[in-house]
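Bumping my old thread because nobody answered last time. Still need a sequence for this structure:
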């Protein structure tokens, strides 16, 4: 392998890692209800298609924050990722599972949705961002909420939104 081939392969690895980081940032933004964090992963002229919502990221981010705000909790997780880099354009199929604690008819329920993001990314001025994102849902289910773990362990650390979550309190983490 030539040094040029090696450098090209290493650049592809770096590009894929940067795209992976975008996907993690997007999920964190949804879970922490951080609109600016969600917007940070998209190019300003990007577009989205979630089926139930189509439009620019700024409109989607507002829509998502309003929809998720009514939930008691959210937890988005990324699964396997297939990212194909073609120069300064890349295509991705990103598997996800999303947990939503909702209240329906006065009862707490757990809504699970799993699917894939089908994305196009573009590297502009050396920075990767999403230029198009579609959400393809593969399955969903709603179950009655059962939280025996939290009843049995009331002192367990619980996730929170925004700056209340432990992951947002770096100074506190530095001193633990």
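Sorry it took so long. Here it is:
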């Amino acid at each position: 392998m030539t040094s040029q081939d090696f450098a090209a392969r290493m650049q592809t690895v770096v590009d894929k890692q940067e795209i992976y980081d975008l996907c993690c940032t997007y999920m964190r933004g949804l879970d922490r209800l951080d609109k600016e964090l969600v917007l940070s992963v998209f190019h300003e002229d990007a577009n989205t298609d979630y089926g139930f919502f189509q439009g620019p990221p700024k409109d989607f981010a507002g829509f998502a924050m309003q929809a998720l705000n009514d939930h008691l909790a959210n937890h988005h997780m990324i699964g396997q990722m297939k990212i194909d880099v073609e120069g300064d354009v890349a295509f991705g199929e990103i598997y996800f599972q999303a947990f939503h604690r909702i209240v329906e008819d006065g009862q707490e329920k757990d809504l699970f949705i799993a699917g894939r993001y089908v994305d196009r990314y573009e590297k502009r001025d050396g920075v990767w961002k999403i230029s198009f994102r579609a959400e393809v849902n593969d399955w969903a289910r709603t179950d009655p909420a059962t939280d025996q773990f939290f009843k049995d362990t009331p002192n367990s650390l619980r996730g929170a939104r925004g700056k209340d979550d432990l992951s947002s309190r770096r100074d506190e983490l530095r001193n633990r």
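Strands lie at 42-49, 54-55, 73-86, 89-104, 107-124, 127-144. Let me know if any region looks off to you.
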